[in-house]
Amino acid sequence: MPEETQERNLAVDLKLNKYALDSEAENQASTYHYWSEQLTEAKKARDTQKSILSILKAEKGAHFRMTLGKATAQAVEDAITMDEDVQTEESVLRDCEAKVSTLYSTVSALEQKKSMIDNLTKLYLGQYFSTPPQGISQNASSNLNHSHAGAQ
Predict the structure, then answer these.
(1) Cβ(42)–Cβ(103) below 8 Å
(2) The overall pTM is greater than 0.85
(3) C-alpha span between 90 and 109 (Å, rounded)
(4) For residues 56 and 119, what is the distance between their CA atoms, to the nearest angstrom?
């Protein structure tokens, strides 16, 4: 499967044009797939970073137990926590976690968009957009139709 060579714009992908439901429905699956793959890659990066951090902490723990002599377990833990390399890798892990969270929200928003496409299609098939509600004057109806035509 070819990789995307161009960065996608989330704001554009989440936008919904109710006057172009056919193209919105057509593009929904590929858009959802793209962002789901981004989530999968972010989870993979996060899990890799967790492994890197775990190994680094184990190595630092072994080092501190040897160099600190008869230090308590808490002193070794504190030394690991304060180690600059460990702090750097923990920062990278926090960034990975934030990206995963953001992408979960993105995929959820795309699920909501799919639902809205379905709902708008049902409204369209029910001719919701074709006639003005009762009680609207002919002039207001004409203005309403004119404003919809300009939005297309």
Answers:
(1) yes
(2) no
(3) 29
(4) 51
Supply the pLDDT for residue 3: 46
Rounded-to-integer distance, Cα 97 and Cα 104, Å: 11
Is there a domain that residue 49 lies in?
Answer: yes
Residue 7 lies in a domain: no
37-81, pLDDT tens digit by residue? Answer: 999 999 999 999 999 999 999 999 999 988 888 888 999 999 999
Q: Which domain holds residue 26?
A: 18-147
Residues 94, 17: Cα–Cα separation, whole Å: 36
Spell out the residues 6+ positions from residue 132 whose beta carbon is closer than 8 angstroms to its own.
140, 141, 144, 145
User: Quick check: helix, strand or coil at residue 137?
Assistant: coil
In a domain, 6, yes or no: no
Structural domain includes residue 2? no
Split into its structural domains, the chain has a count of 1
Q: What is the pLDDT of residues 112-139, one digit of tens each?
A: 999 999 999 998 888 877 766 666 555 5
